[in-house]
Specification:
337 residues; alpha/beta; seven-stranded parallel beta sheet; 14 helices; 13 strands; 36% helix
Amino acid sequence: MPSPQPPRAVFAMDPVHLPLLFPPPLMTRLTRAAELDPALVVQDFTDPAAADALARAEVLITGWGCPRLDAAVLATAPRLRTVLHAAGSVRSLVGEALWERGITVSSAVTGNALPVAEYTLAMILLAGKDTFTHRERFRATHAYPPPAETAATGNVGRRVGVIGASRVGRRLLQLLRPFDFTVLLHDPYVSPAEAAALGAELLPLDDLLRHSDIVSLHAPDIPETYRMLDAGRLALVRDGGVLINTSRGALVDPEALTDELVSGRLHAILDVTEPEPLPAGSPLYRLPNVFLTPHIAGSLGNELERLGRIVVEELERLVAGTPPEHEVRHSDLARVA
């Protein structure tokens, strides 16, 4: 019997990401699995040059910079049956029309969780050593700190509170296991037994905030989590406590957080903020107790290849007639980022 015709696939993303997502070995696997033009990368679905490719496309390989797949876009792609997203969240990408069409969606969010968890682990370890404070003092004084100033420094028994057993949260819990931390967890969908299996003690959110030295946010950006850390809850964190946010800025009340940081009562490591980026006049750029990074915790540089590999493997499963390993279902969006 003749081999089945490979599916027709089209890239839809900012072209700048393509070489890092799909270096030559992965691009070769893609072109073997699907009928695909590596030189055609659609960023504007209204572009006449893309119309023919979209009309024939059965698979869209999407990434950062892909416009939303709304009803108007889907009308130009009547044969589309699968979207393979070479990035994390699909929340801003897919609309109701896509689910109504029964199109399968897969995301490389699992691959994106690892670098975020690695970044967070690194920041927890540095925060426990009070690294950022000591750096500021050393730059100013050129002197080593006296023992009295380091008595409370260190990572033995440090209480780390993880908010959200998301993919990132779970990877972080795995990475925390070798260290001498006491790990606390808040997640309304996790049982005490499951938390224990993850190496953490399950607590209500307010109790976690009261008992943690370092609080790390890994909850999804959904209506239920909007401003979940407001002024009242931030006030529960002990004096000198550290807040790490690699999730979304919307989870924290920005004015309340700024007040706490300007007062010097809390420290923060923020890879995400609200708004993003912060306005040029924000005091958070200048505060010694704030460590800001420009949304770099997720996949960057050579880490993008991991996302591309997940997409290639999903496409190969599709061609082989096996179910996707990283499918995103409509019902998932109520609970995930």
